[in-house]
Amino acid sequence: MTFATLLRFIGLEQKKFWIDEKWSVMEATSYYVRENNKTLPIEEMKDHNTVINVIKSNVQLDSGNGIIYFLSLHFWLKLFGTTVLSLRILSLITGILVVVVLGLLTNQLFNNKFITIISLFYCSIHPDLIHFSQEGRPYNFAILFTLISSLFFFKIYYKQTTLFNFIVYGFFASLSLLSHYSTVYILSSHFIISILNFNFFKKNWEKIFFSFLLIFLIVGIWMLNFGFSGLEIMSHKSELYIQKSFLDPTNSTYKATNLLSLSQGWAQNIISLFGVSLVSIGVQIRYNIILLLPFLFLFTKPFVANYNKSIYILIILIFSSLFYATTLSLISGNILPFQTLYGVFSTPYTIIFLSFLIHRVFLHNYFGWTFFVIFFMVITTSSFQFLLNFK
Asked: For 146-162, what is each residue's pLDDT tens digit?
């Protein structure tokens, strides 16, 4: 934990304060509230820095996405001041909590100290998770709440089917969606996993229904009052993105959807899940040759013994982000949904899955300590390359 905290503190205040973080401050302080299509004067902003105006700002700037983060940031900045360090400290704290909850979830799935330690270390050095711990945006909030909801989902799934666990699951699942709409693919995976286990679903369908009813109730209140207005703005933005994709075919962000662009999107997101997306493409290719090696042993009997259920669950959670991005890309006509920041909610499950595979490789002496050291040298090198180069 000390190592994870240290990595997230390196360059915390020195990194460039970029446009999305400026938006975060504008939303959390109600600066973007408009009256009669005009931004309010600076001198009037203090009186207008209220919860309802934060909500209005969020709808106008972020289409109503991430409201839980921006309301939390609103009170945080009032308490600690509107500075770059204050803005990012909130993300840093949630980033450290992500490491803690991921360790708890790994132990719950495998009940193995070695796998848990590998998972904690991997999470500590994963460049994307370090990045979001140093950025004033809602992603770490959403990662944390999806992990907590997964923690309670698996408590339920592995026989702790108390009504309390179902209620807590529904509450944190709601917070996940209200921290970022894209967490829907993780929550949808939970539902799919429940259905695939017919006996579990048959015994607990009433409580499962109650949990999702709670989610619909909490999120529905937001959507009916403000969320749907935000989605209209989002729809308008999507139309602009489609126009850009046709006007500028070379723009990789707004590239039109086709078989080639979808393939590139899948490759880009898989690389990101490993943790080497924030370095040059040549390095990515070389690193991923090494990182793919554990998968050679995935389906050998010693590897899957006693862990079948956990492995298949993790695979569903990992690939849910890719199917989600594919669906949205086909609907929208551009591959903007394949931006790696929207797939980051699957990253913790990739970390747990790879930690299990690394443990199995080491345990059965296929590569032993040599592979173990090389694997984490790759990720650590990627992390420090990110910390040194991202300005």
From this structure: 999 999 999 999 878 88
